[in-house]
Amino acid sequence: MFERTTYIQRREALSKQVSNGLLIIPGNGDNPGNYTDNIQPFRQDSSFLYFFGIDLPDLVGIIDLDTGETTLFGDDPSLDAIVWTGPLPSLAEQADRVGVTRTAPLGDIASVLRQARQAGRTLHLPPQYRAQNRIRLSEWIGISLAELDNLTSPSACKAIIDIRAVKSAAEIANIEQVLSITKEMHLIAMRMAQPGATEQAIVGAMEGYAWSHGCRQSYAPILSKRGEVLHNHYHHNTLRAGDLLLNDSGAESPMHYASDITRTIPVGGRFDERQRAIYQTVLNAQLAAIDALKPGVPYLQVYELAAGILVDGLKQFGLFKGDTDEIIRTGAFALIFPHGLGHLMGLDVHDMEALNEDWVGYGEGYERSRDFGRKSLRLARPVRAGWVVTIEPGIYFIPALIDRWRAEGRFTHLIDYAAFDAFRNFGGIRIEDDVLITDTGSRVLGDPIPRTIEEVEAATQR
Where are the transmembrane segments (predicted)? Predict the structure, then answer.
C-alpha cells in the first residue's frame, strides 16, 4: 500500500474530472473454483486498488461528487470469519489507512443507491467484468442486468483512464522491482531450454521462483515451441535441438503491478542461420520502435514503422515483394504480424482494458480498424510522458493462415506463397519489453534481460 495521502489525492483528482451524482467503484469478492469453499486466489479490482488501496474482498467505495464525501462500504470481520482467516482489521481501520473517514455496512448500500436513483441523481459505474458484481449491483440498485449496462459512465471511465495511465515514481519503482523477479524467471527458462526438457517443467520452475519471492504471475504464461500460436497455454511438448522456445511471461508484484516480457530461445543454445536472420529482424523492429517513442508520437505510427522493418527483413527470403508502403497500407503484412505492437501496462497487464479497450487505446482522431491484424492494435493514440507501454513485434508462420490467404488469392502481387512453403514448421519469434515514456523519449524498464542473439545464446548455454 502506498502512503495514505496518495489515495486521497487520487480520489480528489477523479472527483475534479467527473461531476454530479455518485461514483461507484466496486471491489471484487472471493471467486469459487470448483465449489464454494475452494476459492481461487483473490485478485482485487484494479481501479478499486488504485483509488482505495485495500486488498480485501467485499468492499465498495462510493464518492459523492456533489459533496466530495467518500464512503467505504463493507463489514467488520465476524468471529466465524476470524476462526478461518485469523485477525483482520476492522472496516474503520482499513478506511483510515487510505484516508476515508466515513464507513457503512455493506447491507446499507442498497438503500443508498436506490434513494439516489429515486431522487434523480446520476449513478456513475465502470463496466463490470465479473458476473458476481453485476448480479450484486443489479440487486442493490433494483434494476435488471440489462439495465445495469446503461449505468456505465463514459465520463467516469475516461477520467479513470486519464488518471491511471500516468504512472508516479512510486508506481514505476514497483514495476521495476517486480521486473527483477521476471528477469530471473526468464533466465531460468533460458538455462532449462535444453533438448529433452519439457515445457511444463520450465513453466513450473518459473512460477515456483515467482511464488517463492512473494509474487504470482501477472497472466497465464505463454511458453511453447509452437510460438506461432499467439496465446499458447499448452505446455506438454518435449524440446528438441533446433526448436525455438517462445517465453511470454511476467510476475505481478505484491501490490499487483504487472510485468510483461517475451524472449525467444534457441533450444540447446544456438540459433541456426535462418533463425538468426529472422530473430535479428524482429529485434531491429523492436529497437527502432523503442527509439521512436516520445511524448506526442502516435503509437499507430510506431506500429507501422515496426511492421515495415519486419517486411523488409523478410524480403531477403523472397517472402514479400513490391513496395513496402503498399504492403503496410493494404494489410498484407498481417500474414506474419497478426497482432498489435503492444499495450499500456500497470495494475493490469493490459492496463485498464476492462474499462473499454477503445477508450484506453484510441480516442479523438483515431478509429479502430476492422482489418485482420490491424484490428488487434490495442493502442493507437499519441503516447504521453508517464505511460508504460509494451513493445512486442513478432514474426509468425501460421500454416492455417497462410493456406487460407493462398486459397483466397489475397495479395498475390505482394506475397510469394511458394516461398512460404519452406517456413511452414518454423514457428514464431517475439521480443517484448516494458517501456516508460519519459519527458524526452523512452526508457526500457528494469535491469536488462538477455535480448541480442549473442546474449540469448550465452544465457542458454550451460
Answer: none
Cα–Cα distance measured from residue 260 to residue 269, given in angstroms and rounded to the nearest whole number: 23
Cell 440487486 appears where?
Answer: 139
* C-beta separation of 173 from 360 below 8 A: no
How would you classify the pairing of strands 388-391 and 442-444? unpaired
Handedness of CA 312, 318, 320, 324 (dihedral sign): positive
Produce one character per residue of 294-314: b if its CB has 16 or more CB atoms within 10 Å, e if not: bbebebbebbbbbbbbbbebb
- Which amino acid type is present at position 30? D
Outline which parts of the chain fall under CATH 3.90.230.10.
169-460
Are 389 and 435 a contacting pair, CB within 8 Å?
A: yes
CATH number of 4-165: 3.40.350.10
Average pLDDT, the chain: 97
pLDDT at 104: 98
**What CATH number does domain 169-460 carry, 3.60.20.10, 3.40.50.300, 3.90.230.10, 1.25.40.10?**
3.90.230.10
Cell of 364: 479523438
Q: Is the pLDDT of residue 278 over 80?
A: yes
pLDDT of residue 24: 98
Greatest CA separation for the chain: 73
What's the rounded Cα separation, in Å, for the pair 333 and 101? 56
Q: pTM (2 decimals)?
A: 0.96
**Residue 78 is which amino acid?**
S
8 A C-beta contact, residue 15 and residue 68: yes
> According to CATH, where is 3.40.350.10 located in the chain?
4-165
DSSP readout, 5-70? HHHHHHHHHHHHHS-SSEEEEEPP---EEEETTEEPPP---HHHHHHH----SS-EEEEETTT--E
**pLDDT at site 462:** 67
